[in-house]
């Protein structure tokens, strides 16, 4: 039986994929792994200590911050600061991007966009939550990095990943050469390779979206629901609806079993709810690397040109066949014709 391979060993081994690598990206991924273990420790004992519930503050989105949101944000910024490989962090929990203020980091070449704890409103009811991160190389080569270094298309990502704090804690990431999943073994405190070369099934029978927004859905989404609930269900396959309310949980399940996750435009979220830089781009990179598809219903997520730090987009992501059916209905019933 092949021995255990830890995240650290795997990262170093795969560094050979990048002939000019000097180890910075490897160390950056290590830093994220360390912060994930610290956050995991607090998430797993939430309820036992006074870290549940609202922090009494709001983020730029006007969303109430949970204490664990703020805690996770602090831990990732701290780990990236002490690691010295990142010059800027764009995080859901800060209005502006954070310049890493340490002598070594000023000239660091990587930028991290992160949602430190996605789905945190679920924490108090013990539902899976996650961290989502995206890594870019800064574009500017001299002086301090700026917002333009952060606002890069998803195709420019060097790496992307997520951590799911669920029945077990897993870190799943890609550097553009496939997707690999690591499960945290608490007995040794290491993420160990458990899901090598992850591939999403090209088709599936799971659809994930919040049908509570039905009346506000675009016509194409309503037609897609009719397709999965009536038309295709009658001729080909029974479908099932699964919606956790935690993007990482829903997409991780679909990555393993096949499925589609949709967060379209709604009345409350006319531009979509999920953020491009630190939710949709990283998840799109991962799912594409696993053989899936990610769009806003019309255009590839990774090709969207960012203009704002916290900009939102609709997202249709998952098994290739399912997303293509949804996109064709979005096109057919688009009012933008
Ligand atoms: P709704 C969590 O707040 C999140 O950003 C995603 O993780 C999740 O899929 C979605 O929003 C849930 O949103 O409007 O269905 O509650």
TrEMBL record:
Biological pathway: Carbohydrate biosynthesis; Calvin cycle
Cofactor note: Binds 2 magnesium ions per subunit.
PROSITE patterns in the cross-refs: FBPASE
Sorted UniProt keywords: Carbohydrate metabolism, Cytoplasm, Hydrolase, Magnesium, Metal-binding
Positions annotated to bind substrate: 118-121, 210, 243, 273
GO molecular function, a single term: fructose 1,6-bisphosphate 1-phosphatase activity
Binding-site list for Mg(2+) 2: 115, 118, 279
Cofactor(s) in the UniProt record: Mg(2+)
Subcellular location, record wording: Cytoplasm
Protein name: Fructose-1,6-bisphosphatase class 1
Species for this entry: Pedobacter panaciterrae
Source taxonomy: Bacteria, Pseudomonadati, Bacteroidota, Sphingobacteriia, Sphingobacteriales
């Amino acid at each position: 039986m092949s021995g255990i391979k830890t995240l650290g060993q795997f990262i170093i081994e795969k560094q050979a994929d990048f002939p000019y690598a000097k180890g910075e990206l490897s160390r950056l991924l290590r830093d994220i792994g360390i912060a994930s273990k610290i956050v995991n420790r607090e998430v797993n004992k939430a309820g036992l200590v006074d870290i549940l519930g609202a922090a009494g503050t709001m983020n730029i989105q006007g969303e109430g911050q949970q204490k664990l949101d703020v805690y996770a944000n602090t831990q990732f910024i701290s780990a990236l600061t002490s690691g010295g490989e990142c010059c800027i962090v764009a995080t859901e929990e800060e209005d502006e991007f954070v310049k890493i203020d340490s002598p070594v980091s000023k000239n660091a070449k990587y930028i991290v966009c992160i949602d430190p704890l996605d789905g945190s409103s679920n924490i108090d009811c013990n539902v899976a939550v996650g961290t989502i991160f995206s890594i870019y190389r800064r574009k500017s080569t001299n002086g301090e990095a700026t917002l333009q270094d952060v606002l890069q298309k998803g195709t420019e990502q060097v790496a992307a990943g997520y951590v799911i704090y669920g029945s077990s804690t897993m870190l799943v990431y890609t550097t553009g050469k496939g997707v690999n999943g690591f499960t945290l073994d608490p007995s040794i405190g290491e993420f160990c390779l458990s899901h090598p070369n992850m591939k999403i099934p090209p088709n599936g029978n799971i659809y994930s979206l919040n049908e509570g927004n039905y009346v506000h859905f675009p016509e194409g989404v309503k037609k897609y629901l009719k397709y999965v609930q009536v038309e295709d269900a009658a001729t080909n396959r029974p479908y099932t609806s699964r919606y956790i309310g935690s993007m990482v949980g829903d997409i991780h399940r679909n990555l393993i079993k096949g499925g589609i996750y949709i967060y379209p435009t709604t009345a409350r979220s006319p531009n979509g709810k999920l953020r491009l830089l630190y939710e949709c781009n990283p998840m799109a990179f991962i799912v594409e690397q696993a053989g899936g598809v990610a769009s806003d219903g019309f255009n590839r997520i990774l090709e969207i040109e960012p203009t704002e730090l916290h900009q939102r987009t609709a997202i249709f992501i998952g098994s290739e066949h399912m997303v293509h059916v949804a996109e064709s209905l979005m096109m057919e019933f688009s009012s933008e014709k």
